[in-house]
Structures are given as structure tokens and as C-alpha cells.
Amino acid sequence: MGIFAVGLFASYFMEEFNMTFTDQLHEQAATLWQQSFDHPFIQQISAGTLPKAVFRFYLLQDRYYLSEFGKLHEQVASQVTNPKGRTFLLEGAQGLKDGEIAVRKGFFETLQISKQEIAQTPVAPTAYNYVNHMYAELYRGTPGRAIAGLLPCYWLYNEIGKRLIAAGSPDALYQQWIETYDSDGYTDSVQKMIALTNETAARTDADERTAMAASFVRSSAYELAFWQMAMDRQSWQAG
């Protein structure tokens, strides 16, 4: 079945079953997301047994990722024509600086991660490749593909937070991490990003929606790889 035929089938399926574009994306990435839910990193966060050395490594790599994630918001915003979407993306970039990155700073202080350690920690291959994937979706692709590539970071973390919040974690630091992604404010941002993705998809053709879906699935795969990167304390060295 060609790309055009896939697009027609997807459009029919969405209309027939009242599915949004992002519902379709969610289904396409469901196996990857389930692997994230079941990953030892997430399960050990919930159990409170994740080694702090692993969490420290994750935070250091996530600091790099979030810094670039915020820059991507600003660069995508400069290319979108939807004023509402542009405003949301710029607010998201500022929110990262004021909110999530600030929370990470608190984690750094608790774990005594110094500025020197931050400066001397190399970016791990998976973090480097994930960020490069999103820049490629923007500069070798389109703003719509970049938006689809940004969405899993919002949405998957929110679903993880909602799944873990009921049981919580016996470790106070990990409980704080869980609560970050189940908050009303964070959930509201996720819903706005989902809406922006759907609005963007509605203004384009079947081929572009197929490319947006590929970007979303690739980002979902990188999210899964990010957990394992932390468990392995991944480096550029072989072996």
C-alpha cells in the first residue's frame, strides 16, 4: 500500500471511529510507550530502588535535553503561521526555564551535582541523537514534523505520572519527580500541545501527516532509549 493510500485509509479510519490525529499517533506508538511504562528505570522510580547514580546520570543528560527542547520551541515558533500556536510554543519555552528546569535545579542541589560536574559531563549518544532528530525534523523537514516530534516528551511523561501517582514512591526525591508530571498545570500544557498537533495536521495533506507520524514514533523510540541510556550510564566508548 502506497503512502497516499495509507493516508486515505487513515483519514477514513479516523472519521469512522471519531479518532483525532493524535489518537492515531498514540496507537502507532503504543508498543513503545508500554515498553517505557514497563522499563526498569520507571519501575524502580516507583519502587524507590533506582540507584541514585543512575538518577544523577539521567538528570545530567536531561538537563542538556531540556535546554535544547526549550530552544526548539522558540525556533519552531518562529516558523509557524498560527498565532495561537506560536504563543503557546513561546510560553512553553519560557515555562521550561521557569518551571521544569527549576525543578531539576532542586534535584541537582539535593544530589549535590555541581556546576563543574555539569560542565564536565559529556552528552551521551542517545541524548545527542534524540535532540538531533528533532532539529532534523524542523530544518530538513517542516514545523509540523518538529511539533509532532516534540509531543511525546510532553504526553508520555504525563501518562507515566498518572500511572505512578496512585502508588507513589517511598523515595521523596522520586515522589517529587512523579508529581511533576501529574500536576494540573503540566496536564494542561500537554492538552494544549496535543491540540496544536491536531490543528497542524488538519491544515496539511496525507503525505505530511504520514511524515509527522514518523517523527512522533521516532521520538517515542528515543524516549524509551533514554531510560536505558541512564541505566547503562551510556558513553561514547566501545564495550
From TrEMBL:
Pfam families: TENA_THI-4 (PF03070). The keyword Transcription does not apply. It is an enzyme of class 3 (hydrolase). Pathway: Cofactor biosynthesis; thiamine diphosphate biosynthesis. SUPFAM superfamilies: Heme oxygenase-like. GO terms for molecular function: thiaminase activity. It catalyses: thiamine + H2O = 5-(2-hydroxyethyl)-4-methylthiazole + 4-amino-5-hydroxymethyl-2-methylpyrimidine + H(+); 4-amino-5-aminomethyl-2-methylpyrimidine + H2O = 4-amino-5-hydroxymethyl-2-methylpyrimidine + NH4(+). Residues 26-232 form the Thiaminase-2/PQQC domain. One of its GO terms (cellular component) is cytosol. One of its GO terms (biological process) is thiamine diphosphate biosynthetic process. Keywords: Hydrolase, Thiamine biosynthesis. Its EC number is 3.5.99.2. The keyword Metal-binding does not apply. Belongs to the TenA family. Catalyzes an amino-pyrimidine hydrolysis reaction at the C5' of the pyrimidine moiety of thiamine compounds, a reaction that is part of a thiamine salvage pathway. Homotetramer. This is Aminopyrimidine aminohydrolase. It comes from Secundilactobacillus kimchicus JCM 15530.
